[in-house]
Structure formats: structure tokens, C-alpha cells
Design brief:
By secondary structure, the protein is of the alpha+beta class. It is built from three helices and ten strands, in the order ααββββββββββα. It has helices at 2-23, 28-34, 147-176, and strands at residues 48-51, 56-60, 65-68, 72-84, 87-98, 101-104, 107-110, 117-121, 126-130, 141-142. The chain binds 2-acetamido-2-deoxy-beta-D-glucopyranose. InterPro entries: At5g01610-like, DUF538.
């Protein structure tokens, strides 16, 4: 009899524990991790986000902000993209600084199995970083919402890259001839 009561109690306790685990809210960081991506891709403190079964996500920051990694990343107030295992596509709302210019990051991916590297698609090139930089979410410093300036700079940066690759192509073409 006593054994039965104990068993019942144990069962009840484990049920309680189970529901507690289940009701723990899933964070956007958990979702990143479950897709094989490092949590530090997004800054600290995000509690508002949407995520649906197609992989589409949207996160809402309190304010646009910058976080310093090897180069600086700028996060708009709203960041969205499509998650699949090991990558984010159709990314919008993150720009990366390179040589004083800001490039929109269009996608991010890691190697599977992991090579310890992470790749940012900034349009013309993939920029690679060490994965360990993004292990933990960073503090993000608020910046003035200066999207227009960022966009103008982006265009300039894109044009420079385009120009450079056209020049390269021409040199290559000449070399072939
Ligand atoms: C961010 O998303 C919210 C909700 O969809 C929208 O109301 C708001 O205008 C967006 N903000 C910016 C800066 O795009």
C-alpha cells in the first residue's frame, strides 16, 4: 500500500515536472540552435518574435542597434528571414560593416558538419567568420535610426563592388585574348 502511494506520488511529481518543462517558452535563440545556427546571430534580449512552420521568422527589437563582432553588425528594429537547417535565407534587417561601408546581409550559412566557420552572404561575396564569435548573444548598442543613410551607403558599396568585378572581368577577358 505504502509502495503504491509512493509510486503514485512519484508519477504525479514527474507529471508536474514534465508540464513545467513543456510550458517553458521557446525563445528565438532556441529556434536558432535547433536549426544548427549559433544563438549570437541575434542580439541579447529579444522576446518578441514570430516563427512559422515554413521557417519564416520575424524578430522585433526594442530599437535599431549595433553589435561589435570582428566587424560591426547593424540590426534594424525588425529582422526577418527564412530558417532552414544550417542557414538563413531571404534575410532582411541586418547589415555588416566592411571598410566603412555597410552591406546588407542577404543570407547566413554554416557548414554541415561544422567546419567552425560561418558565412555571411553580402551580395557579391561570402564573408567568412569564425563560428565561435557568435556563440552567445551580444549586447547591442542603440543607434539613431538612420536607415536612409545606410541605404545610400549600401548603393555606393554595391556599385563599387560591381565596378571592381567588371574591371576584373575585363582584365580577365584581355588576358584570355
Ligand atoms: C516592424 O514590424 C511591425 C509589426 O509588423 C510594424 O508595425 C512596424 O511598422 C515595423 N517597423 C519597421 C521599422 O519596419
Amino acid at each position: 500500500m505504502i509502495l503504491r502511494v509512493r509510486l503514485l506520488l512519484l508519477l504525479l511529481l514527474s507529471l508536474v515536472a514534465l508540464t513545467m518543462v513543456e510550458s517553458e517558452p521557446v525563445s528565438i535563440y532556441d529556434i536558432l540552435r535547433s536549426h544548427g545556427l549559433p544563438m549570437g546571430l541575434l542580439p541579447k534580449g529579444i522576446s518578441q518574435f514570430n516563427f512559422d512552420e515554413t521557417g519564416r521568422f520575424e524578430v522585433f527589437l526594442d530599437q535599431a542597434c549595433n553589435a561589435k563582432f570582428e566587424s560591426e553588425l547593424h540590426y534594424d528594429r525588425n529582422v526577418s528571414g527564412v530558417l532552414s537547417y544550417g542557414q538563413i535565407g531571404a534575410l532582411s534587417g541586418i547589415t555588416a560593416q566592411e571598410l566603412f561601408l555597410w552591406f546588407p546581409v542577404k543570407g547566413i550559412r554554416v557548414d554541415i558538419p561544422s567546419s567552425g566557420l560561418i558565412y555571411f552572404d553580402v551580395g557579391v561575396v561570402f564573408k567568412q567568420f569564425s563560428l565561435s564569435l557568435f556563440e552567445t548573444p551580444r549586447d547591442c548598442m542603440a543607434v539613431r535610426s538612420d536607415n536612409v543613410r545606410v541605404r545610400e551607403q549600401n548603393m555606393v558599396a554595391g556599385d563599387i563592388y560591381k565596378l571592381q568585378s567588371e574591371v576584373d572581368e575585363e582584365i580577365f577577358a584581355r588576358a584570355v585574348i
